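Why does residue order matter? Because the sequence determines the fold. Keep that principle in mind as you read this record.
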Amino acid sequence: MIKLQNVEKVYRTSSIETLALNNINLDVKKGEFISIMGPSGCGKSTLLNIMGLLDEPSKGIIEIDGSRVEKYSEKNLAHLRNQKLGFIFQSFHLINDLSVIDNVEIPLLYRSSTAKERRELAQEALEKVGLSNRMKHFPKQLSGGQKQRVAIARAIVGKPEIILADEPTGNLDSAMGNEILNILQSLNEGGATIVMVTHDDAMAKRTHRLVRLFDGTQVL
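Structure:
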């Protein structure tokens, strides 16, 4: 589902050059659930952003579901992200002025679906994460774990084949973190390919495979 070949990412300013990723070669198979680990600043989030087509590599090849994307226009990249990818962030990124169900519907606004279809898909996604009774609440009325479940519902509402999760349990206690990972495992068992950045060894052990980074280089 995701293939990276000789991927490098360099950030440049007028006075300094920082090598964030160096010669990354990685295959993520359909239906895999993999973890990415490493010390702070080693390039984990940069790698996830490149996989999610949110950032461009300085060099190298990216394939998503067999398609090379380096020559895609921004419009085509946006379409691919919306159709194939779902994103879960550590900080939730919910819109406080919108209800839970309206937050979940956001990715569907960029598709040619009706208001009724959007509402039905959002309700279905919230049911999957156990928040059917919170649809009309607002983010400020939710706990951290509930906010993360809303974020997961938003990520899966469009039925993406790939879910990219950046520290999805990082702001949660261990009990709620386990609940969130249970949901991710259930989505994986349902066919989703998942790549998760984590700092938690216990969470990583529950995934199929571990990728380790150190100073931007893949060491495992």
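The radius of gyration is 17 Å.
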